[in-house]
From TrEMBL:
Cofactor(s) essential for the protein: thiamine diphosphate; Mg(2+)
Annotated ranges, domain Thiamine pyrophosphate enzyme N-terminal TPP-binding: 20-137
Protein name: Acetolactate synthase
GO cellular component term, pick one: acetolactate synthase complex
Record pathway: Amino-acid biosynthesis; L-valine biosynthesis; L-valine from pyruvate: step 1/4; Amino-acid biosynthesis; L-isoleucine biosynthesis; L-isoleucine from 2-oxobutanoate: step 1/4
Catalytically driven reaction(s): 2 pyruvate + H(+) = (2S)-2-acetolactate + CO2
Organism from which the protein derives: uncultured Coleofasciculus sp
Amino acid sequence: MRTQSISRKEVPQQTISRQTGAFALMDSLKRHGVEHIFGYPGGAILPIYDELYQWEATGEIKHILVRHEQGGAHAADAYSRATGKVGVCFGTSGPGATNLVTGIATAHMDSIGMVIITGQVPRGAIGSDAFQETDIYGITLPIVKHSYVVRDPRDMARIVAEAFHIASTGRPGPVLIDIPKDVGLEEFDYIPVEPGTVKLTGYRPTVKGNPRQISQALTLIRRAQRPLLYVGGGAIASGAHAELGKLAEIFQIPVTTTLMGKGCFEENHFLALGMLGMHGTAYANFAVSECDLLIAVGARFDDRVTGKLDEFAARAQVIHIDIDPAEVGKNRAPEVPIVGDVRQVLIDLLRRYEELGIPPEPNQTQAWLARINQWREDYPLQVPEYADSLSPQEVIVELANQAPNAYYTTDVGQHQMWSAQFLKNGPRRWISSAGLGTMGFGLPAAMGVKVALPDEQVICIAGDSSIQMNIQELATLAQFKINVKTVIINNGWQGMVRQWQEAFYGERYSSSNMEVGMPDFVKLAQAYGVKGMRIESREELKGAIAEILAHEGPVLVDIPVNRNENCYPMVAPGKSNAQMLGLPERNKLEKAIELVYCSHCGAKNIASNNFCPECGTKV
């Protein structure tokens, strides 16, 4: 006979009570601050859902029933990205667990703290190829930070406490807990484990940077004539927004960010260069090609950022700050490696600067900033207007104008890159699958953000191909009245695939045209109980966007745009960041900068530096 569930308040920290493994799980989740769980039930996880029924009835935890486990994983992922808390999702054994894999891999690539709970066949049936048995522990080993199989319910509270600690400390990441069905049912003498009380032998992430290396970094910053801050998702994860801004302003250092780093620095600031890399701004890519000091902050020198690696910041010294020692020096050997929490390292660097009491050299970067501003004027991002159709860029700009402070999620493809170029986001208000590039991320991600932050405006920018990957989550929006606005940038293609086929595959558009079989998105939204709209002209764009934002409830809007619009600038594979497609011919680096040749050795591209980097002769 099942023991009646009691609330957490009735189980003090060291009180022993007779409970089930499922109760121990739910009580432990609640103790770790979990308020929302995204999931989908099934046979092996039913004991946990039966216990969850009691916790939902008392209002202590709310479960969001997704329509596909992948949607639940993405929602929990975005919940974490938006709040900095650990997101939680549930799935049953077998196909329920394997449906979570893409979402787990997405979180792993972007270093997002999640705890994933999967049901499993009973302990005695493990290894027997039982119904819906899958070794999800083994399947996910390469894509989790850590994982557990709970063999004894007495370990449940400790495992949950460890999982939350691991997921949220050091370099964040997903942690899997696989729970056999009979473990959830078994009764035992339950003793809770409170957050922050577990100690893991051998797991001690380095938080404080080495003082000597911090001093060395400060020395390089003081000497640099053309410094550049290259900032990634680690700055978001550590909450280093204020410290980063202070460092940039003290030394007048321009800032470029990765796709994951968007929002960590005020994007309307005159020092902000936007995103760099394959579809970064021209001025950010020219700057990284010409800087003499690159300060990498919570970034991993990803191939989409660096282009041809041996030509990435080729003349620059490098300071690399990251909490994960495996990332420091992985792709580029830095002159000054600093392992530590980004925010703490920047705090210590700024403190060291204040202790010395020596102000920066007057106008140290003035010539460098003037040069960057000239690139900014010569190569601005373009918002084309067509006589017979809307451009994707003008749709995104209108959204940015009317909802500047919204939380934006995206799917993956051209619309994602245009959004990254034209939206100006604050910290944690840009939520996109970067490392894995997961189509179908945007809609369930928006759902997770809105559940976490119900009073905030949440907008998903999707593509007509990506949206169909997880469009079933419209049902979740309808059921729980989750007020998300989804905007489909509809060009009838797998847009980025088409662009690559046009540029590199002789315009052979193999399996990238999505027109045939495309649903009527307005009617489909209405079938799910969601307001559907279509915007087809420039004249109605502004008013329709205002209507969408004002509507109380979820909205799906289909916006046909120019079918052949490409996303530029673009760095072709194997090329340096200075060699961008889609700009006027004068964008070639040799024409965009003033060439200076060394009279002693003949080296070129010395630019504004006073000394030849090859032979040291004063120019």
